[in-house]
Design a protein that fits this description.
By secondary structure, the protein is α/β, with parallel strands linked by helices. The protein has a domain of 124 residues: P-loop containing nucleotide triphosphate hydrolases (Rossmann fold). The protein is built from 9 helices and 8 strands. The strands form 2 sheets. A 5-stranded parallel sheet has the order 2-3-1-4-8. A 3-stranded antiparallel sheet has the order 6-5-7. Helix 6 crosses helix 7. The chain is globular and about 60 Å long. The protein starts with a strand and ends with a helix.
Length: 225
């Protein structure tokens, strides 16, 4: 059975870290909305050209366009054993479209990472990134270095990790993305994880949740068969 996974949670919840770990351990691709948008633009596909025109104007890419790009990406051979969606869906409309894309395939597993706002503000305002290679240094790493250990470039505070910006990002998340919990929470494939723990502890909890979901799905299939 393919592992089709959506991981969502507020900014700073650790989605990217955990998705990357699962990509390595399960051998399935982590699909980031930002990455595939940039890839589509670079490839010069019709959808990529449309997206570039919109982004060049500083506007947000519409649900219809991002759904089209996701649909195109999920047709590739490398998702035969599953995928990890990071950053999609962001709205209920996108979630409905994803259900339609996956109709007739293996079930969608949904993992929500729950972290209190106070912890998120601390995490993000303490986070530093390398201005050249993008390496991230979090609050769990102790005092962040001023020089990147990977490439030697300066390590800086991202503009969108400043406290005032973080609070606005969390407000937008609650308004736009939190309704996904209501959309998904009654499904047997939905699990909510306490993300306010060490990355290793969260990883262990996610693996246990995935094993639990897949066991339920197999049992349901046997009962139907």
């Amino acid at each position: 059975m393919a592992l089709n996974l959506v991981m969502f949670g507020p900014p700073g919840a650790g989605k990217g870290t955990q998705a990357s770990r699962l990509e390595q351990s399960r051998g399935i691709p982590q699909i980031s909305t930002g990455d595939i948008l940039r890839e589509a633009v670079h490839a010069g596909s019709e959808l990529g050209r449309q997206a570039k025109m919109i982004m060049d104007k500083g506007e947000l890419v519409s649900d219809e366009l991002i759904v089209g790009i996701i649909r195109e990406r999920l047709r590739r051979d490398d998702v035969e054993q599953g995928f990890i969606l990071d950053g999609f869906p962001r709205t209920v409309a996108q979630a409905v479209a994803l259900d339609e894309i996956l109709t007739g395939g293996d079930p969608l597993v949904i993992i929500e990472l729950n972290v209190p706002d106070s912890s998120l503000v601390l995490r993000l305002s303490s986070r530093r990134v390398c201005g050249q290679c993008g390496a991230t240094y979090g609050s769990s790493d102790g005092e962040p270095p001023s020089i990147c250990a990977n490439c030697g470039a300066d390590v800086v505070l991202r503009s969108d990790d400043q406290k005032e910006v973080v609070l606005e990002r969390l407000r937008v998340y609650q308004e736009q993305t939190q309704p996904l919990v209501a959309f998904y929470q009654d499904r047997v494939t939905f699990r909510s994880i306490d993300g306010n723990q060490s990355p290793d502890t969260v990883q262990t909890a996610i693996v246990a949740a995935l094993d639990s979901v897949l066991a339920v799905v197999r049992e349901e299939r046997l009962s139907v068969g």
